[in-house]
Automatic annotation (TrEMBL):
<feature type="domain" description="SRCR">
    <location>
        <begin position="207"/>
        <end position="305"/>
    </location>
</feature>
<feature type="disulfide bond">
    <location>
        <begin position="275"/>
        <end position="285"/>
    </location>
</feature>
<protein>
    <recommendedName>
        <fullName>SRCR domain-containing protein</fullName>
    </recommendedName>
</protein>
<dbReference type="InterPro" id="IPR001190">
    <property type="entry name" value="SRCR"/>
</dbReference>
<keyword id="KW-0677">Repeat</keyword>
<feature type="disulfide bond">
    <location>
        <begin position="25"/>
        <end position="89"/>
    </location>
</feature>
<feature type="domain" description="SRCR">
    <location>
        <begin position="105"/>
        <end position="205"/>
    </location>
</feature>
<feature type="domain" description="SRCR">
    <location>
        <begin position="1"/>
        <end position="100"/>
    </location>
</feature>
<feature type="disulfide bond">
    <location>
        <begin position="130"/>
        <end position="194"/>
    </location>
</feature>
<dbReference type="InterPro" id="IPR036772">
    <property type="entry name" value="SRCR-like_dom_sf"/>
</dbReference>
<feature type="disulfide bond">
    <location>
        <begin position="38"/>
        <end position="99"/>
    </location>
</feature>
<dbReference type="Pfam" id="PF00530">
    <property type="entry name" value="SRCR"/>
</dbReference>
<feature type="disulfide bond">
    <location>
        <begin position="143"/>
        <end position="204"/>
    </location>
</feature>
<keyword id="KW-1015">Disulfide bond</keyword>
<feature type="disulfide bond">
    <location>
        <begin position="69"/>
        <end position="79"/>
    </location>
</feature>
<feature type="disulfide bond">
    <location>
        <begin position="174"/>
        <end position="184"/>
    </location>
</feature>
<keyword id="KW-0732">Signal</keyword>
Amino acid sequence: VRLVGGSRCSGRLEILHDQTWMSVCDAAFDQQDAEVVCRELDCGAPVQVLGAAAFGKGDTQMWTQEIQCKGNESQINFCPVTQSHKNTCSHKNDVGLMCADNVNVRLAGGQSRCAGRVEVLQRGQWGTVCDFFWDMADAAVVCRELDCGEPVDVLGGAHFGPGSGPFETNLKLCTGSESTLKSCGSVKWGLYPCDHTKDAGVICSGVRLIGNSSCSGRLEILHDQTWVSVCDAAFDQQDAEVVCRELDCGAPVQVLGAAAFDKGDTQMWTQEIQCRGNESQIHLCPTSFNKNSCSHDNYEGLFCG
């Protein structure tokens, strides 16, 4: 089933039958049928069923059967049909459908909404992604879709704990520029044994540590799509608590000033961060203008552990 001529979750309804896409008559489709279509497409609940070719006239054959879903089926092909409906239909009667556009990916099991096990909505059920070939390009798409900044780390082996439900065994072939994970290509791959001990995880953040590991290094913050460094005079233990938590790196072990992790070549962040220490992400902390005169000799560094 697909929706054509609108968006991912709205458009003219077409059903695949004998390898041919067919349009559906508005007289043969109701709210219960709409519930099933929206679920199958991993969209939200039906918002509106529209007749009279609201999304334009199709150029396909017309579906000749009447769909009689109960509304709880996971796919349209599980619904009963009658052999033919009594109405005379043309493309003036093509049915259209608007479903709510759900978020179809989430991160679970981490310390913030931007770090965790990758879970995708598959026919109304949350499932996980196999870590085989899962990489930073795939993670970049997830982080963008969730408005979580940039990918900081990609983790396999159920780092955030094993999930439940179905798991996606198709290899995702994201370039990194797609707006949603569903927009990425994929390829069937059956040679790698996937189970929930191999669930993929991602850490996205507007903050990162540049050093020998993702949990220690020079502190940089994403501001207006540019990574900027932080002055050691504008950063304290409470700020460190938030950074380590956001990066899923435990507690701060040491806060280091004086460019302990090299001087870098980024711009200097002009704000002073004033976290209370219990925030889940650095961008939720208040800031004020930093009165200190800072240079590349004052870059902030941090060890989390």
